[in-house]
Design a protein that fits this description.
The chain has 158 residues and is α/β, with parallel strands linked by helices. The protein has four helices and six strands. It has a six-stranded mixed sheet. Helix 2 packs across helix 3. The termini are far apart.
């Protein structure tokens, strides 16, 4: 099992954003970038690093703005565009700091992270090798237990 190192970078607006770095066993320039689900953080993706078992890849997983060890209100950004701009700043940071090759970068993103990653790729067109979107949250359906019964009662009273 590889262990992550907590690192930080300055985003587009000066916000300091944390990420987790699992160093490859040997330098190959290949990297895997993980985007977590909503209400999660990068450290919770340790199991993916273990299960994929790609020792020749540097693996990176950010704590999105307002998540994990980052400052600020939990889960908050001024608007969704901040997350997308953060993704571009993170990408630029990885290229400059670790010498990873964009053409050898694979992105795996889940849920809201998949929406951020797809918007980032759409808006910035990075020359990444591949992107896997797992259960992208293109539609949010919040379910509250018992809400259907309450709505039915309200409808019956009208």
């Amino acid at each position: 099992m590889r262990h992550s190192i907590l690192q930080k970078f300055n985003s587009h607006d000066g916000a300091v954003i944390a990420y987790h770095y699992w160093q490859a066993h040997r330098a190959t320039g290949k990297s895997l970038v993980l985007f977590h689900r909503g209400h999660e953080h990068g450290a919770r993706l340790q199991h993916i690093v273990d299960e994929l078992d790609v020792p020749d890849f540097d693996v990176f997983a950010w704590d999105a703005r307002g998540h994990g060890v980052n400052d600020g209100r939990r889960g908050h950004a001024p608007n969704f565009g901040y997350f997308v701009q953060d993704a571009q700043a993170f990408h630029e940071h990885l290229l400059a700091t670790y010498g990873v090759a964009a053409e050898d970068m694979v992105v795996i993103a889940q849920s809201v992270g998949a929406v951020i990653a797809s918007a980032w790729v759409h808006d910035y067109a990075p020359r990444i090798r591949a992107m896997v979107l797992a259960s992208p949250a293109f539609s949010v359906n919040l379910y509250v237990p018992g809400v259907d019964d309450c709505l039915e009662l309200i409808h019956l009273k009208q």
